[in-house]
Amino acid sequence: MNFDDLKNEWNAENPEESNISSDMLKIKQAHTPIDKIRAKMKHEFFYQLFFLVLMAFIPYIFGFSALINRVFMMTYSITCGFTAYYFFKFYIFYKNSYNLSMDTRKNILWFYYEMKLNIELYKALTYIVAFISVGFLTAFVFIEKASVFSRILNKLSPVYILLNCFVTILVIGAITELWAWFYYGKYLKQVKKVIDELDYE
141-149, long-range: CB within 8 Å, 24+ apart, which pairs? Predict the structure, then answer.
């Protein structure tokens, strides 16, 4: 093999090496949003745990009657059950994300789709807890403020009540979607951008 052949082979190999280093740079770019998502998951676990413990003292803070206290304990137990399931799933995902080295497209892709799934689970939990809270507040009004509530209810039209329920659902949905996007979605979008760039190349 002469010098010209070696030179041609060397020139042919350079684009591949350049492409590999370019891919590695993109993979490194994905680390920043992934690290931010992990940090936010860790913080949110402690925030939610704190508020869950704080909720246990609500009957004592507001001085609930014995009947309302029983209703509250039922709804609180259901909320804790759903939240415990969510915590368990989130913790498994969080732990597994550290067991993988995020230095390949395959692992970044796994993180992206698993995180998307966990965000949907997160939103579902938020809807469940919100509607459990609305159910408890309704029970509280019916039991504790029945006379006042019935007088107000008689003055309201069924159309107004249905419209109010519809608006409440919309508000809960909008807050949930916006919070999920603000807290996780924007970072997940950055990860997806890196994946798309790697796919394109």
Answer: 143/65, 143/67, 143/68, 143/71, 144/65, 144/68
Report in angstroms the alpha-carbon separations of 147 from 150, 162, 178.
5, 21, 38
Q: Any idea where the domains of the chain sit in the sequence? A: 3-200
- Predicted local confidence at residue 196, as pLDDT: 81
Whole-prediction pTM value? 0.73
Q: What does the CA dihedral 179, 181, 186, 189 come to, rounded to 10 degrees?
A: 160
Place of tokens 């070696």: 6
CA angle 189, 193, 199 (to 5 degrees): 140
Does pLDDT of 190 surpass 50?
A: yes
Contact present, 28 and 197 (Cβ < 8 Å)? no
Residues 170, 94 contacting (CB under 8 angstroms): no
